[in-house]
Amino acid sequence: MNWHLMSIGDALRQLESDATGLAPAEAARRLEQYGPNRLSEGKKRSPVLMFLLQFKDVMILILIAAAIVSGVIGEMKDAAVILFIVIINAIVGFVQEYRAEKAMEALKKMSTPFARVKRDNRFVQIPSPELVPGDIVFLEAGDVVPADLRLLESHALKIEEASLTGESLAVDKSTDLLQEEKTPLAERVNMAYKNTLVNYGRGQGIVTATGMQTEIGAIAQMLQEGEQATPLQKRLADFGRKLSIGVIIICLVIYVFGLIRGEDPVRMLLTAISVAVAAIPEALPAVITIALALGARNMVRKNALVRKLTAVETLGSVTYICTDKTGTLTQNKMKVKQAWEPKGFVPAGLELTGRELFLFGMAANQDTKKAPDGTLQGDSTEVAVVEYARNQKEYDPSWLDRMERVFELPFDSGRKMMTTVHRRPEGKFLVLTKGALESVAASCRPDTLANSREKADEFAREGERVLAYSYKLIEALPGKEEAAGLETGQVLLGLVGISDALRTEVKQAVEECKTAGIVPVMITGDHPITAGVIARELGLISGKDDRIVTGTELEALPEEELSRQVLHIKVYARVSPEQKLNIVKALQQQHQYVAMTGDGVNDAPALKRANIGVAMGITGTDVSKEAAHMILLDDNFTTIVNAVREGRRIFDNIRKFIRYIMTGNSGEIWTIFLAPLFGLPIPLLPIHILWINLVTDGLPALALANEQVERDVMKRPPRHPNESIFAGGLGWHILWVGLLIGILTLSTQAWAMEAENPRWQTMVFTVLCFCQLTHVLAIRSDNRLLFRNAFFANKPLLGAVALTFVLQLLLMYTPALQDVFSIEALSLNELLACIGISLIIFFAVELEKFIRFKLYKGRR
Fold first, then answer.
1. Contact predicate 522/540, CB 8 Å
2. What is the C-alpha to C-alpha distance for residues 537 and 532, in angstroms, rounded to an integer?
3. What local confidence, expressed as pLDDT, does residue 405 receive?
4. Which of 115-119, 151-155, 371-375, 467-471 reaches the highest mean pLDDT?
5. What is the rounded CA–CA span in Å between residue 324 and residue 328?
6. pLDDT at 851 over 50
7. What is the pLDDT of residues 268-315, one digit of tens each?
8. Which of 185, 222, 196 is nearest to 551 (CA)?
9. 3-class DSSP state for residue 638?
10. Would you say 826 and 762 are in contact if contact means Cβ atoms under 8 Å apart?
11. Which of 494, 465, 467, 498 is nearest to 340 (CA)?
12. Torsion angles phi and psi, residue 158, rounded to 5
């Protein structure tokens, strides 16, 4: 219901209440009818169900199938190891999801515990959850508004609504009737909303909505929407589906081909099962989880705290950053940008110059207080003006002692002015007034206003809020009846332009975003002129097609039209929480991956809906932090750019994991697949395959997480949302290098068997392991040769290769392990031969990179 369009009388009648408040019996009846004034939660999943749902992933199902297959063929050790990996992976996923469920709990904790209400014409204090529609609530500075209210009284009442509307300035409240039906939330001056903060004055209001019916309740409802799958989750799910189909086809081909050749059906079944075990990358889920965790640890060092591991990789896919202005692009601190006083102005009857009197007016006409640490506290505009005055070289602190305040007319939203009176040493009185130019100009002599309106328009075009100061001298203090006369016949002192100061490093961060192919967009509750000025200054708006849209215009825009125009809109001003959410959805409909930054309660639904929500760690509310995927510990926009760079590095390294692991598995598949075709026995046992997949694959793959960032990582466009994880030649690399590994391995087998070497299976096993190690050294960089890269930059990888090499030797030369793995000790010559054969893979991959680089250079 549009309560802001109702008069006070109509609102009282509609709510069946009056100025004396509700009777206790009626309040109890309404509490039964409307329920407690608290935010409800959506239906929660039990921890057991949350844990079980971790097993629905395709890759996890493949691993479970591998465990079953291993058990069927009698390899219980293999089955036990695979199941252990599956359970560890599920536990990690469960912990991440369980923590995310705290978002609604944090939102509930924001409710104020008590409220002062009028019951039977008496003010009483009651628990906030007991408020009902129709209650009369009393507000004063420091209170958190306990419910949505239509204001009945306003005495210099100012309410900080940034967490709800995004508006950086406290809103001057009044009881005036509004006429515009589609008045934005930030401009409904006769309303007060649940969980906003009263920072000045006092007032009364009648409760119009409680609990989930409030504006904050609507946000809570939006928070119950589901989250979007991350690019990595989608790519791995697609990878898992393709892998499972491929494994089934390969196994069927092997089995049918064997039957056609007249092979024993049981033997061919065991062969097909061995291929299935070889194809499944058992270590991949665990390696990726650990890699993301390591990436998250690195990001904390750069002031980005990751709450959900998948967000680490998602950053590398982001195409749009939807950022709030207040506290994100700006410091959330008002600052005087410029001041103007009439040229050649000399105050009559004062020893002060025009400039000095102007500065004294800024320092004296205010209600700030000094905190124990020496900082100023109070209205952010007044703090900014006082700090500006005190920092000027002409300012003299002794002025305040020589001209003490003896009278004041407090700020009033109707007058839009504040006036103070100061006793002069000679006995006269100095009257100082500040306020909106329209109001102050009306109190001044017309001959003193020259050029003031033109200057004020200039300030406004630069996105600044204009504050005017004026003065006059009087002989004696007026009585209460004559006090209004203080604000007449004054002389204009000057104008002050105030704005929320920009973060100095943000402009460069915006430029880096654009270089990386990321589009930054501002979504704010501020006035469109202010938002537009800041957007142009930061470079958010730079082209002729870039647009600014207000919340009112957005509301009139059909969903289909918004979806068509959304890629051209760079600034959204005066938007509601629902509209922020709709903007994110519209971008996602255009196949964009969206990061949403924010700090307020109003940002929480969009943070949760976005592909990655980024909350502010210092100014952010608990609700925004719980709904977000990542928290900026320094509230610095540049930290997002650093996080994007880290996200891209991590995805590059994940692709290197997949390149390494799947190429090794491809080599195993080719080896087992081609052996019968060449008339050779199956060269590997299932335990050999599991050792290669978990140890030879796992240790170096994990160390790849420490690989340095590629030099061009922030010059590439974001990855296409639908891009396959095998894009960029990765799939072909896996096939041809795997085939080469298979050929080298089978050649070793054929040569050893031809020589009637009883250790042929150990040699095959060793060549396959060493081929993996030489391969991982070659793929450390996608486009730079190993020795032209920083060879020792990734010491953990070099250590992992050395450790894996030593472990392989221990298997061969430790009698107890020989029995477990059914292998034998090789002679020195046999070992050197295996090493020499495996080095062919290293040089082949380095040659591939060299040819690719030459072709790329030639095309340029």
1. yes
2. 9
3. 93
4. 467-471
5. 6
6. yes
7. 666 676 666 667 665 566 667 667 777 777 888 888 888 777 777 778
8. 185
9. helix
10. yes
11. 494
12. -125, 135
Q: Which residues are catalytic?
A: 324
432 and 364 in contact (C-beta within 8 Å)?
A: yes
* Residue pair 248/182 in contact by the 8 Å Cβ criterion: no
pLDDT tens string 339-365? 999 988 889 888 899 999 999 999 999
Residue with tokens 């880096």: 512
* Range with top average pLDDT, 38-52, 92-106, 269-283: 38-52
Distances (CA, A) of 435 to 381, 583, 838: 11, 36, 81
* Structure token digits, residue 712: 């061009």
Query: 616: which 2 tokens?
Result: 């502010």
Which pLDDT band holds residue 376 (cuts at 50, 70, 90)? confident
* DSSP, residue by residue, 297-355: HHHHHTTEEESSTHHHHHGGG--EEEE-STTTTEEEEEEEEEEE--TT---TT-SS-HH
Q: Output the pTM of the full model.
A: 0.65
Go through 505-544 and write b for each residue having 16 or more CB atoms within 10 A of its CB, e for each that does not.
ebbebbebbeebebbbbbbbbbbbebbbbbbbebbbbeee
What 3-state DSSP class applies to 504? coil
DSSP H/E element including 191: strand 191-192
Residues in the chain: 860
Helix axes 265-279, 637-677, angle to 10 degrees: 160
pLDDT score for 103: 42
Burial degree of 569 (CB within 10 A; 0-12, 13-18, 19+): buried
β partners of residue 842: none
Token pair listed for 536? 């142009």
List b or e across 179-213, with b for residues whose CB sees 16 or more CB atoms inside 10 angstroms: eeeebbbbbbbbbbbbbbbbbbbebbbbbbbbbbb
The helix (run of H) or strand (run of E) holding residue 660 is helix 637-677
Handedness of CA 20, 23, 28, 32 (dihedral sign): negative
Interatomic CA distance for residues 317 and 595, integer angstroms: 10
Please report, to the nearest 10 degrees, the dihedral formed by the alpha carbons of residues 698, 701, 702, 707 taken in order: 170
Of 145-154, 293-302, 437-446, least confident by mean pLDDT is: 293-302
